[in-house]
Amino acid sequence: MDEATRKRVRAGRMLLANKPVAEVAAAVGVARQTVYTWKARLDEGGIEALRTMARGRPSLLDDAQREQLCRALLQRPTEHGFGTELWTLKRVRLLIEQRFGVSYNEAHVWRILDSLGFSPQRPDRRAIERDEDAVLAWKQKTWPVLKKSVRGSNG
User: Which of 3, 24, 32, 121 has the most CB atoms less than 10 A away?
Assistant: First the structure.
């Protein structure tokens, strides 16, 4: 059990023992309004309802949609109509909006990606069209000649 669940269960047991809400709130270190929320939950479903209480706002994407998003992100961005082979937060945000009709800000898109197991990647700072053989030939043949001619002109 995590700390928040322990607090809720402790508060629930105190409420079941007819302790006043203010006393319970002080004992577990939360606001009285929080204890009232927990009390309503306790009255509805007992201690178990406090153990399984979801935290935060429910997600706008269900599990099936999150799985679809994950599969889409494993494909190339160009397969989804983007111009290059790089996923950005803006592009993922647009993909979610187009596919699922849900609009998130980029900070939340980052949280979704993190929860799906994606991590930031830094692209190579090299042109996609770069010809390694041509670069090597230039470094071995052309550059030494240019270097010598620049040194020779100073003397």
Answer: 24
pLDDT mean over 142-152: 78
What are 90-121's pLDDT values in tens digits?
999 999 999 999 999 999 999 999 989 998 87
**Domain coordinates in residue numbering, the chain:** 3-51, 58-155
For 92, counting Cβ atoms within 10 Å of its Cβ (0-12 exposed, 13-18 middle, 19+ buried), the class is buried
Residue 96 is predicted with a pLDDT of: 97
**What is the rounded distance in angstroms from the CA atom of residue 8 to the CA atom of residue 30?**
10
CB-based contact 34:55 (threshold 8 Å): no
**Do the Cβ atoms of 69 and 62 come closer than 8 Å?**
no
H or E element in which residue 89 lies: helix 89-100
Secondary structure (H, E, C), 96-128? HHHHHCCCCCHHHHHHHHHHCCCCCCCCCCCCC
Question: 71-78, long-range: CB within 8 Å, 24+ apart, which pairs?
Answer: 72/99, 73/113, 73/116, 73/118
- pLDDT over threshold 60, residue 68: yes
